[in-house]
Protein 1
Amino acid sequence: MADERVPLARPDLSQDDIDAVVAVLETPYLSLGPKLPEFEAALADFMGMARGVAVNSGTSALHLLVRALGLGPGDEMITSPFTFIASANCALFEGARPVFVDIDETTWNMDAGRIEAAVTENTRLLLPVHIFGRPMPMDRVMETAEARGIPVVEDACEAVGATYRGRLAGTFGLASTFAFYPNKQMTTGEGGMIVTDDEPLADLCVSMRNQGRDPGAGWLAHARLGYNYRLSDINCALGLSQLARLPAFIDARARVAERYLDALAALDELVLPAPYTDGRVSWFVFVVRLADRFTQEQRDAVLSDLTDQGIGCSNYFTPVHLQPFYADLGYRPGDFPVCEKVAARTIALPFYNRLTEADQDVVVECLKSALACL
Ligand SMILES: Cc1ncc(COP(=O)(O)O)c(C=O)c1O
């Protein structure tokens, strides 16, 4: 394998970010200090929501919400099979069952028109995912949810700053989750956030992220089962500093995406991300897919050719229901044919704020040469 010439992802770190982190290290408040509420308030403010609850990952954010909403054995949670596995695992953590709804072939989001048919008397939660930063049609999701009296938690882990019909993704449901791994639009190293207007829900999550402690009670007083899902002040300081540049990050990523769309438009081997007319995509990754006439094996050959040429790439995503342990839940190949067809052909290309035009040209040339071998 060649040395990697262009990585798949790279965080955008400035001297301000470094200074913000170092400043925390010069205080005794490495965790549960002042940067935690500052970061929470800043993200809640950005979202126009009452509360932010910072946690150590997007997965933890999802878990706390599923638990706070009381899901358990016998309960069902509707989500997408075309997502990062945590979107579904959060139900399994509490013994509930993820029920998948196949995706829309164009948007790669859960097909909102099929949600209703998946609702049963056991459905306790709808968990739409704004995949790759492209918002779900939330009016349709909310219509179904309200008609059936089911709460909605938006998995907005890939969609910070995206908008749908003039509203930020993550502001439609009862609560939403964000994630800040270094490949995300903004990073805290590791980290996540719950955002909600529901004060009691936020308070419960605050307690559960900190070993079930209640505010003001002693360090060894645990009112309920909880976890250590705390986010340190070091991470929060980085998050605050990154959040200040988030609008610029989102713009930079949109420009990189536009350049790819132009450069790849003429390749009939590829299906490119469709234009989005309902608002703004907050580009998380740039994923193309091979046309229907190609197979998964051919896609895998393109990925390994790109890797050999030093181009970071990935197969975002293997369908969740085809992960080995989901077979134990009774899921089988063929259950969600649109998802499977798309997932077998996807290619995530290098994508980050500071991807230079020169490096992008290299990626495009390498992709063309890989496609020529098909
Ligand atoms: C859609 C989605 N949900 C949840 C998560 C989980 O976030 P984390 O990796 O911070 O646990 C991710 C992270 O990649 C994600 O993409």
Note: The pocket of pyridoxal-5'-phosphate is lined by residues 57-59, 83-84, 86-87, 129, 155, 157-158, 179, 181, 192 (CB under 6 Å).
Protein 2
Amino acid sequence: MRKLHVKSFGCQMNVYDSNRMTDLLTRDSYMETAAPEDADLIILNTCHIREKAAEKVYSELGRIRKLKREATRAGRKVIVAVAGCVAQAEGQEIVRRAPVVDMVVGPQNYHRLPALLAQAERGARVVDTEFPIEDKFAHLTPPTAAAIRARGVSAFVTVQEGCDKFCTFCVVPYTRGAEASRPVAAIVAEVENLANAGVREITLIGQNVNAYHGEAANGRPVTLGHLMNSLAEVPGVLRLRYTTSHPRDVDDGLIAAHRDLAILMPQLHLPVQSGSDRMLVAMNRRHTRAEYLNAIARLRAARHDMAFTSDFIVGFPGETEEDFSDTLRIVDEVGFAGAFSFKYSPRPGTPAADRQDQIADEVKTERLARLQECIERHQSAFNRNCMGRNLDVLLEKPGKIPGQLVGRSPHLQPVQVMAPSSLIGEIATVQITGIGSNSLFGALCSTQAREPALAGAGG
Ligand code: SF4
């Protein structure tokens, strides 16, 4: 049987897409290999978010060129594909610049891989980055129980793709297209399949997941809160999460879901990017600082133990020291449990990249250091507050030390605990006895036989 190696870069959506490509190709003609040098088909599933993303792909392709040359010398044909957001953004340019590449496949087109592969095997160089009219998901293969078990007790499920927001720094609307949502029934079926094979935690993913507006059984579109209510009834699912959300799409239904569904974890990643209204307008974020804080307050009123994480960009074009102070203030006001923060870096083709008032790199570096110090102060306080408390931890996998398991708290903190591997997939009560830099340490108190809970326990 021929061998497939998929290398995934970037976000959870790419991890999910890589798994679905693997499911599709291992259905009949390929088996997976972790070693690219053994593979007959190599797929790079690329990400366009990072700086110089395309250049990094070309240098990775340089390494693959050597592997392909050696395989050819040994009389073995290797097909190389570039998928994901760089494939979408660069298209034909990739086959022009990198003769090693046989196929370029956009994120909306990978359901066509078997047909494209057949063309590539006949010697054609194939580029497929048109946004298709058919539903990609309807053409994919569900993962086998063995594949699901190998991927662990926590799984991602894409429910929404694309973005209509056009923030002035972001390439997603150009690479992933307009907002589109999968129907409720298809998502429920996928979650049932995962839960039947032992998955206990589902994270719903989408570039703008809370803009979800998929079709319900009656043909009408419903929101993410409604979808969450349907998924809470799937037997075996113990926890639900979702990411990434946009502040503008935090609606009453989502807030009610946090209030009513105990299996919806009290944690939300809600990017704000800046605490300055002037910068939020320049970024075309379509929400104000006050609206963001109001969404946080309403979620906390619905569920008092909500924890929030966020994303920040410092040194966006035109950012003054006063704008930056507003960002520091919003970190203090919300008290984030954690956040990702980056220096602004221009993405070709986005409006902000063309602005003349770019900020000097040393200013960005200095502001980033101050912001990260502020974020870390709040994150440490949040973690210290867990000391001595009993937390429900979903035990996910073996830790680095023999006899140790690693799991996640309701607030997504990694927790290390000595516990038998038979407890993987269970929720255990763990008393927190230590705080590390990236995780908590705890002692096992008990495991709980749990049914998925509905209603009222969030409080
Ligand atoms: S909402 Fe998110 S994905 Fe959409 S353009 Fe803005 S940053 Fe990009």
Note: Residues 449-459 have pLDDT under 50 and may be disordered.
